[in-house]
Amino acid sequence: MSLITWTPELALQHTELDDTHEEFVGLLNDFATALAGGGDPMPAFETLLAHTEAHFAMEERWMAATGFAPENCHSKQHEMVLDTLREVRRYALELKDLEPMRIIGPELAQWFPAHAEMMDAALVFHMQQVGYDSATGVLLKPEASEATATQATQGEKAITSCGSSSCGH
């Protein structure tokens, strides 16, 4: 069962992140297939959760390394998604309730393209601006990263919101 299809429109022209995103899409579909098949969906869900934890941790490391504002909507979305996935897992394991699992797949499939297009694209742009090579961890323009961090600590305009009224600068 396919909830979402990997397309070139989802690519951000950042090999490591695009590969990670494509893997996420595949694992989300694997989970949906396992759930629809009537068998035990937990192994596929656990794989999806572990991937998502590692995926978000990778992006969080990049944000920290490049001076991307520590209080930003991108990180808040990561926290909310992980909290939700962990709660879905708890419901399944402790309460033997799979209904949250039936809901989370389509919700993630709807959330992901917008997150990638807005949040992850902004992170990729920021990394390009500060000359960050995510493969090596080398920051080619540390002065640009320091300027961003200084702006954030002085309350100046920095990447701290998602562009919606629910997240502020």
Architecture overview:
By secondary structure, the protein is mostly helical. It has a single domain (14-153), classed as Four Helix Bundle (Hemerythrin (Met), subunit A) (Up-down Bundle). Helix content is 66%, strand content 2%. The chain contains five helices and two strands. The chain has helices at residues 15-36, 42-66, 73-94, 99-129, 142-153, and strands spanning 132-133, 138-139. A two-stranded antiparallel ribbon has the order 1-2. The longest helix has 31 residues, at 99-129. The protein is elongated. InterPro entries: Haemerythrin_Fe_BS (IPR016131), Hemerythrin (IPR050669), Hemerythrin-like (IPR012312), Hemerythrin-like_sf (IPR035938), Hemerythrin_metal-bd (IPR012827). Belongs to the hemerythrin family. This is Hemerythrin domain-containing protein. Residues 16-121 form the Hemerythrin-like domain.
Which tags fit this structure?
transport; 5 helices; mainly alpha; Four Helix Bundle (Hemerythrin (Met), subunit A); two-stranded antiparallel ribbon; 2% strand; 169 residues; iron; oxygen transport; single chain
Shape from CA axes? elongated
Structural class: mainly alpha
Radius of gyration over C-alpha positions, nearest whole angstrom: 17 Å
Kindly provide the name of the CATH class.
Mainly Alpha
Approximately how much beta-strand content do the residues carry?
under 5%
Q: Averaging pLDDT over every residue, what do you get?
A: 87
What characterizes the major β-sheet? Answer: 2 strands, antiparallel
Helix content: 55-70%
Corresponding CATH architecture: Up-down Bundle
